[in-house]
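An instance follows:
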Amino acid sequence: MTEKKPQMPKTDANVAELMTQVAQLTEALQRERADAMNLRRRHDDEMANLRVRVKATVMKDLLPIVDNFERALKHVPADLTDNEYVKGVQGVVKQFEKTLADLGVERIKTVGEPFNPELHEAVSAEEGDGDTEIVSEELQAGYKIGNDVIRHAMVRVKS
């Protein structure tokens, strides 16, 4: 013989209670989904920021090499400008600059630009006839990734 389980009569109170529970559980699920999405977005943002910081750290260590190549090329004697060795060094510098650009590293504009303390570091100033400070000479190149400055450009300013 099979025993019959007593069935609870479906009353309006039971239905209302179940509907309340469904609404509460739905709301809790929606909050959990929103929290998971926020956590995922925050994680992605932190990973992107970490990539930029690591890239900036590596670039900061490599920039003196580019500086030394550029200094060497500025002092090439006139009779050696067509030398194959000098052309090879120029090619290395161009390749390095292309690699920097491919990584999102850009050189900060200097000469002729208005002085910007967020991008430039003034090491000397000359008096001029204007009332705006303009970069007159670049002493050392500055670089940035997006809006993050890796190294400020050292410049001479004329006002």
